[in-house]
Structures are given as C-alpha cells and as structure tokens.
C-alpha cells in the first residue's frame, strides 16, 4: 500500500504543478481584456493628450490594434521605462508595448514577440565624416549617454566610449572636438541633425548602424499560447497595413521624426544581428 501511495504521489504531483501554472492566454480570454503596459509620458510612443489627458501615441495604437486582432478589449497601464520588464515579468500586465528592444539581459527575464520594427543606434558626426564606413571609427572617441545601449554599441563597434549624463552634453562634446561623433537612436539622430542644421551647424549620419535593436512585444516567460497568438496578430496587422498606418501617423516621413519603416514583421530568429547586453 505504501508503494502504491508513493507511486500515486509521483503521478499526481506533476499534474498539480502543471495546473498551478496558469495559462495567460486563457486568462485573457476569460476576462476578455488585454492589459497592455505603455510609457506613461514618452511622446510619440505614449503620452497624455494635452487637452483630454488620455494616453495617445504609436504604442497606444499598437496596443489597441493588437487587442482588436485578439478579439478582446484593451486596458492601458502607464509605466516608467524602468518598470517595463519587471511589470510584465511579475504578470501585472499581460504584454508591454513601449518601444521595448531585445537584449540578452531582458531575454533572460521575459519573452519577446517577433519584432515589428528594428531600431538602430546611429553615429552622428560632422558632415565631412558622414561618408566614412563604420570601421573608420574603430579606436576613435565617440560620445553617448552613460549606461545606454548607445554606449554598448560603441564598444561593440570597437570604438572608445566617452559618456555623459544626457544626449545634449554628449553632442556638445562633438561641437568642442572632444569626440568624433555621438551615438543615439535613429529617431533622435535625425532630430539632432535637423536642429543643428537650423542653427547653422552641418551634421551627418554614418550610413552603417552601430547596432540593431529589434523592437517587440514583451510577455512573461513560458507562455507559448500567448506568444503564438501575439505573433499571429502582428503578422495579420502587417498584412492589413495597420502597422504601416500607425507608423506613418506618429513617426513617419511626414512627421517631425521623418522615420522610414524599412523592416517588416519577421521571425526574431531570422534577423541577423548581434544582441546588446
């Protein structure tokens, strides 16, 4: 009898353990709502409308459209940048759509959908240097914001990072000839070049990116059903042209950011890139 009881316990215990692990997609279906973490105030991704105080932006529209394709309502949950990974890791939000780029460290804590665009770390230099290949800057001093992925990308490109507390200070170092260039994301780089040009300073952007950062929907680890549903929904949004429309509205060529969407939704495994830490 004791042997039978022990065997029964061995059989039952894994079943109980499996039952205890909730299926997040089943939970979303049951409540008929997708809780989506977005930035609390980072335009143009998600920020309060000045008049209505209702959140709006590119990531807000992506959340709303994703929920539509999943057949549920959306509940927006504003987050700080630092809270994006912890909140989804702990299950306080179902997904996070907040310009979240794939890195090695983040991938150990949460899982990522297929990327819906690829952000780029770009090198901004004085105009005469803009046509140089990235290899030209190996061993050269390049500025960036301290602790940023931009700083990581400089090391990855075998250049020497000189860091500052903010992008403005990093750019000032270029003006003062303390560094050859400043690295920032493509959106900020384009804006920096435009602002400098308005002030009579000619800058350019080195064509080859310093690093690629796939931007995806973040979800809790070990939720295969939800991951599959989100990936299917993203591909449907791509096919319907909805992601292109959202992009064009908030950061496209006719906006102040003048961003061109070059990559479409694709499998993360198919993207050739060296992930940042």
Outline the structure in words:
The chain has 277 residues and is of the alpha/beta class. The protein has 2 domains: 20-117 and 215-270, D-Maltodextrin-Binding Protein, domain 2 (3-Layer(aba) Sandwich); 119-211, Periplasmic binding protein-like II (D-Maltodextrin-Binding Protein, domain 2, 3-Layer(aba) Sandwich), CATH 3.40.190.10. Helices cover 38% and strands 24% of the residues. It contains 10 helices and 12 strands. The strands form 2 sheets. Strands 1, 4, 5, 6, 7, 8, 9, 10, 11 and 12 form a 10-stranded mixed β-sheet that branches. A two-stranded antiparallel ribbon has the order 2-3. Strand 8 (141-145), helix 6 and strand 9 form a beta-alpha-beta unit. Helix 3 packs antiparallel against helix 10 (242-250).
């Amino acid at each position: 009898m004791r042997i039978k009881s022990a065997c029964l316990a061995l059989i039952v215990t894994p079943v109980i353990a499996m039952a205890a692990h909730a299926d997040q997609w089943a939970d979303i279906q049951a409540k008929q709502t997708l809780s989506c973490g977005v930035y609390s105030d980072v335009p143009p991704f998600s920020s309060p409308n000045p008049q209505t105080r209702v959140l709006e932006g590119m990531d807000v529209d992506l959340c709303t459209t994703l929920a539509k394709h999943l057949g549920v309502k959306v509940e927006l949950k504003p987050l700080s940048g630092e809270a994006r990974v912890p909140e989804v890791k702990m299950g306080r939000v179902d997904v996070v759509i907040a310009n979240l780029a794939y890195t090695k460290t983040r991938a150990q804590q949460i899982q990522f959908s297929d990327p819906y665009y690829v952000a780029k770390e770009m090198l901004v230099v004085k105009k005469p240097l803009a046509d140089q290949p990235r290899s030209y800057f190996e061993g050269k001093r390049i500025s960036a914001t301290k602790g940023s992925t931009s700083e990581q990308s400089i090391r990855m490109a075998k250049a020497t990072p000189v860091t500052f507390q903010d992008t403005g200070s990093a750019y000032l170092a270029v003006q003062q000839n303390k560094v050859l260039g400043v690295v920032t994301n493509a959106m900020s780089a384009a804006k920096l070049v435009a602002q400098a040009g308005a002030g009579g300073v000619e800058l350019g952007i080195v064509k080859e990116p310093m690093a690629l950062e796939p931007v995806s929907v973040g979800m809790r680890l070990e939720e295969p059903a939800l991951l599959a549903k989100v990936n299917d929904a993203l591909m449907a949004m791509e096919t319907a042209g909805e992601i292109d429309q959202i992009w064009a509205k908030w950061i496209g060529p006719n906006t102040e950011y003048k961003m061109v969407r070059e990559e479409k939704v694709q499998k993360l495994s198919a993207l050739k890139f060296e992930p940042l830490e």
